[in-house]
Design a protein that fits this description.
The structure is a single chain. The chain is α+β, with helices and mostly antiparallel strands. The chain has one domain. Helix content is about 40%, strand content about 15%. The chain contains seven helices and six strands, in the order H-H-E-E-H-H-H-H-H-E-E-E-E. Strand 4 (about 190-200) and strand 5 form a beta hairpin. The longest helix has 24 residues, at about 95-115. It is globular and about 45 Å long. The model is unreliable at about 1-20 and about 210-225 (pLDDT under 50).
Length: about 230
């Protein structure tokens, strides 16, 4: 019996590794972006981490000042997959992008409703950072209003969008694209950030989750080049 349990554990981890190996992503680039301190208009570094299985660090508070751990359940993943399948019934890159647009927004709603809105303000503070204390969690000294808690700017959504895409890919829902590190454009004097994916053997697209409900994958002439 113990031997059988051990075999099941080994098979479980082997399956998890096989599933993870199917994810086509620039993990080094995404990690570097999460850990960088490039100017983002608010002087806060993101300091986030890649998803571990179905667990992400959800960014909120504008500039990823709030980082809430959240684990997607099997029903959450099915909900996102169903949202994707509802608009994509063809095995093409264009169809996949349209499906991902809906799936990622669905995951964003799930985290908002099941985590962010149900989290006490004290727990929010414990999972927040602040530039005055070296961006360490747990001692946010600036005033953080309830309105800021629910605010997600382009930095938050560039990080969240990348995390959502990695989770979806780990479940075999991304076949025609590779997930790239977030990028930016300059809107007047303000940088604007967004997630990116690259069609296998094709173009690079931005995924601008911040622009909901006008969320879409867009080719940016002069910004993203064909690959």
């Amino acid at each position: 019996m113990k031997l059988l349990s051990l075999i099941n554990v080994v098979l479980f981890f082997a399956g998890a590794q096989a599933q993870g190996s199917e994810v086509s992503a620039d993990f080094a680039g995404i990690t570097a972006w999460f850990d960088s301190e490039i100017p983002r208009g608010n002087n806060y570094p993101v300091k986030n981490s890649l998803p571990r299985g179905d667990t992400i660090k959800f960014c909120a508070g504008a500039g990823c000042k709030i980082k809430l751990p959240f684990t997607f359940s099997a029903s959450n993943i099915r909900r996102a997959a169903d949202a994707m399948k509802s608009v994509c019934r063809q095995d093409t890159a264009a169809c996949e992008r349209e499906g991902l647009r809906h799936a990622v927004r669905e995951l964003d709603r799930i985290v908002r409703d099941e985590r962010l809105k149900r989290t006490s303000f004290d727990e929010i503070i414990r999972n927040s950072i602040n530039r005055d204390n070296g961006n360490n969690p747990g001692s946010f000294t600036d005033k953080l209003s309830q309105n800021q808690v629910y605010l997600r700017d382009c930095v938050d959504q560039a990080a969240n969008g990348s995390s959502y895409l990695i989770v979806l890919a780990s479940h075999g829902l991304i076949r025609h694209h590779r997930i790239l590190a977030p990028s930016m454009i300059n809107l007047f004097v303000q940088p604007h950030f967004f997630s990116r994916i690259q069609e296998i053997g094709g173009r690079t697209y931005r995924f601008d989750l911040f622009q909901t409900p006008r969320t879409s994958f867009d080719k940016l002439p002069g910004v993203e080049s064909s690959r």
